[in-house]
Write a structure and sequence with these properties.
- This protein is mainly β.
- Helix content is 0%, strand content 62%.
- It contains no helices and 23 strands.
- Strands 1, 3, 18, 21 and 23 form a five-stranded antiparallel beta sheet that branches.
- It starts with 13 loop residues before the first strand and ends with a strand.
- 10% of the residues are buried.
- The mean pLDDT is 78.
Amino acid sequence: MNQSGDTVVLDESGIMQTDTIQEADNVDGNNPLKLKFYIDDKTIRVDKINLNFSLEKFRAYSKGTESGGGSTQTSSSGGGTNTSTNSGGGTSKSTNSGGGSTNTSSTISLTSISEDVEPIGELTVPVSNNSITLHGSTFRHHHAVDIGSHGHSVSIPAHSHSFSIPNHSHDFSVSNHSHSVTVPSHSHPITYGIYTSTTATGVKIMVNGSLVDSSAYTSDQSNIDLTQHVNNTGWNTIELTSTRLGRINASLFVKSFAGT
């Protein structure tokens, strides 16, 4: 018996045992903290299993990893031909021209033609109701053509020009192709130091895969009794989940009476 006389520590059937399991690890929504402990098949009874934990910030000690580089190719593009949006076309006018008037250069021309004419008989020239008969020898005469000073005027009225663009579109073609991305082999130096982030929160407790406490704890806890949830010998696992990145420091106290 112990000093108070209420607990058997040692007798002919067995002995009282106590054990403490301590574990601390980073956690997130998919990676809980796990406390694993073993109950021997000669254990007569389990008197107490108490859980204690504190919620801490995520903790890391270095950053930077080596990268081997390499080459990768994007997915292929089938290419093809596409048509741009239609253009409405239309008719437009050029800017107006003021027109105007201009003169060609002036010229003065005088032409004179002279020649001798042999009479070939009688020449009768009618004059009203009378006639003139010419007899005689050769006579000289000439024709004169007089073109006086003059010029030509060219006038262009004010006007504009219209041009028309019919409705149309433009086709553009992209051939089958892909893009390659190459990252050369390289490494990143390690930066040593302690890095902390968010604190674990919304903690739930599972024993051997079953949810036993959905309280979603947001603060440190002491002496949560899990005795009634552990009733088998062999390996047992307690998991503590967190709704975000953080760290949990947990301690499990187990008191049992083992047979000899």
